């Protein structure tokens, strides 16, 4: 699709009922029936939701059809995160449904999360009768207005005949260009009333013209810079995964021999086992990854947005680097760091074009990055990823997470919550394929993991799906274990239980003289366990396991892997003093990255 191309309409199935055509009278459907039929026509097979007064008509019809599986969640935020997990694990659009007022506002956190991380979801909310809008009616909320800053687009539908176009447009917008969440708010009378179901609908999206094909001269300029560079780095962001460009990235990296770093959102976009992979950059990235960006003379950013957690103090980030910035969203180009060569386009197409252009450029230029690799390999040897054993006799959380990854393997899916366990999961599990690592990167949403893992398991039922969660995060959305048990969604949950809000506690230790204010949770240390996660797991119909020593770790993980008739919850009691290293202090320069407390690596010589 180019800037001048028309937006494509959904392609209907020739055998599908209710289609309009020459000599065929369209079927008359209620608005609710039109919602269901439209979703089915778009290939949606699973939705997550919770009924309420403003969506009763939709739910009444959901129970009389079998084209779409509806999964009843225990909280609307769970529906939103499940839709995210579904989309992130499969690449398909996730769908969540909620009623008006508080049902819709409970989706807001998940919508904001999806917006920050470019996750394609469609959220369908009920709205009060159109005649009551603006009167402060029971459970009325202007959810279109509320979500406008955190969606790609929000629709308000008041007539049943407008529903097919709204649903089809939402699906298209969510899944094309830079993916993201779209909200469709539908009044109760629009759901109840009837209209002819016309498919495919005419889409009217003025101004929506995602650019996928980049300008050829910009691509050639980038390729020439790479051929001439002596210290290049491919800075790979989550956009590469969303564009399904991992194969193109691998081919490009191997052709050029360039070092690769993958951000928190891009873990798995490039195999961890590959010799050119330096690891994750950023606040808790590997030393080679952090310093490769800092000391590069050329950075090619592919689907990355120069997030503050990657750049550190932006005025001191990569001071000697020329920047090539590739992104499908033109708003990201030069937003934070000025791009010397801006390239707007889909990562899959642009990387393929860069590969061809580089092959042409090296016919007249001889690249030489051998000295650069010698330096980077030296950093790898001097600063390997590692951890110290706890001195309190409790488990090392890094060891637990490492063993989960090793015993499960790269075909598993790992959904993390937010905090220390998220960083350890990003560091110590080896990701070899895209869509295997799910997390809340931009918004940092506690409570993401369990429902996201649930959604991922629905999307990928043949894969092992782990929720790697903290004791704080787990208490925010663990009610979705009931959803998993009742709907036969056998996820595995590993609670990295340090009895505290671990990341906040780490910052309090390092930057607030050890004043641990309001971060103790009393979930696993000492005699009191509030709650007792084993009893909680059993109450939800899950298998509960507690692990307190290293010799129990493997057996517990193997038992979880062998149990597929219900969810599994493992309560790993880990040291609360364990910290995430390396670390770049917030607002500091990446050159001050600390390998451990009071241990900062030295810069290489020019």
- Say how many strands there are: 20
Chain-averaged pLDDT:
94
Helix-strand category = alpha/beta
Which runs of at least 5 residues are low in confidence (pLDDT < 50)?
Answer: 1-18
Q: Any overview of this molecule?
A:
- This protein is α/β, with parallel strands linked by helices.
- The protein folds into three domains: 28-196, 3-Layer(aba) Sandwich (Rossmann fold); 216-382, Rossmann fold (3-Layer(aba) Sandwich); 397-573, Thiamin diphosphate (ThDP)-binding fold, Pyr/PP domains (Rossmann fold).
- Strand 15 (413-416), helix 17 (420-428) and strand 16 (437-438) form a beta-alpha-beta unit.
- The radius of gyration is 25 Å and the shape is globular.
């Amino acid at each position: 699709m180019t800037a001048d191309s028309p937006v494509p309409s959904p392609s209907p199935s020739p055998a599908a009922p209710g289609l309009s055509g020459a000599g065929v009278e369209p079927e008359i459907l209620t608005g609710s029936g039109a919602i269901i039929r439209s979703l089915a026509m778009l290939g949606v097979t699973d939705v997550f939701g919770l009924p309420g007064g403003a969506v009763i008509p939709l739910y009444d019809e959901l129970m009389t059809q079998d084209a779409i599986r509806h999964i009843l969640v225990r909280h609307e935020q769970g529906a939103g995160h499940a839709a995210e997990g579904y989309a992130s694990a499969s690449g398909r659009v996730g769908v969540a449904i909620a009623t008006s007022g508080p049902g819709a506002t409970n989706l807001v956190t998940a919508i904001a999360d999806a917006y920050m991380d470019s996750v394609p979801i469609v959220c369908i909310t009920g709205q009060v009768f159109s005649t009551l809008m603006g009167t402060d009616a029971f459970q009325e909320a202007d959810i279109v207005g509320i979500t406008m800053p955190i969606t790609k687009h929000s629709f308000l539908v008041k007539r049943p005949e407008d529903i097919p176009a709204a649903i089809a447009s939402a699906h298209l917008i969510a899944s094309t260009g830079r993916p993201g969440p779209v909200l469709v708010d539908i009044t109760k009378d629009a759901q109840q009333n009837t209209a002819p179901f016309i498919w495919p609908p005419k889409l009217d999206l003025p101004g929506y013209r995602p650019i996928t094909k980049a300008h050829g001269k910009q691509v050639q300029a980038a390729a020439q810079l790479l051929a001439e560079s002596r210290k290049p780095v491919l800075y790979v962001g989550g956009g590469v995964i969303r564009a399904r460009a991992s194969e193109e990235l691998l081919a490009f990296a191997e052709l050029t021999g360039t070092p690769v770093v993958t951000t928190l959102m891009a873990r798995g976009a490039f195999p961890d086992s590959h010799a050119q992979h330096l690891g994750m950059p950023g606040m808790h990235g590997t030393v080679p990854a952090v310093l490769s960006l800092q000391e590069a003379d050329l950075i090619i950013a592919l689907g990355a947005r120069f997030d503050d957690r990657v750049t550190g103090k932006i005025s001191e980030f990569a001071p000697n680097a020329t920047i090539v910035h590739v992104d499908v969203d033109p708003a990201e180009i030069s937003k934070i760091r000025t791009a010397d060569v801006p390239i707007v386009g889909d990562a899959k197409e642009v990387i393929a074009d860069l590969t061809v252009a580089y092959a042409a450029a090296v016919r007249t230029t001889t690249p030489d990055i051998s000295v650069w690799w010698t330096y980077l390999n030296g950093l790898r040897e001097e600063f390997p990823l590692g951890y110290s054993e706890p001195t309190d006799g409790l488990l090392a959380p890094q060891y637990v997470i490492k063993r989960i990854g090793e015993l499960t393997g790269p075909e598993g899916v790992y959904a993390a919550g937010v905090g220390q366990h998220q960083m350890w999961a990003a560091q110590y599990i080896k990701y070899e394929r895209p869509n295997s690592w799910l997390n809340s990167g931009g918004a940092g949403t506690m409570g993401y993991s369990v429902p996201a893992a649930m959604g991922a398991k629905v999307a990928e039922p043949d894969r092992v799906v782990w929720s790697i969660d903290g004791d704080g995060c787990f208490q925010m959305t663990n009610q979705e274990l009931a959803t998993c048990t009742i709907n036969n969604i056998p996820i595995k949950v590993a609670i990295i239980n340090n009895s505290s809000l671990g990341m906040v506690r780490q910052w309090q230790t390092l930057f607030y003289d050890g004043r641990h204010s309001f971060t103790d949770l009393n979930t696993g240390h000492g005699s009191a366990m509030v709650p007792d996660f084993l009893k909680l797991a059993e109450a939800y119909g899950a298998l509960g396991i507690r692990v307190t020593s290293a010799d129990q770790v493997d057996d517990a993980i193997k038992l979880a892997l062998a149990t597929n008739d219900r969810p599994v919850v493992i309560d790993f009691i880990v040291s609360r003093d364990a910290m995430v290293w390396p670390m770049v202090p917030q607002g500091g320069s990446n050159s001050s990255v600390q390998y451990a407390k009071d241990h900062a690596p030295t810069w290489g010589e020019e």
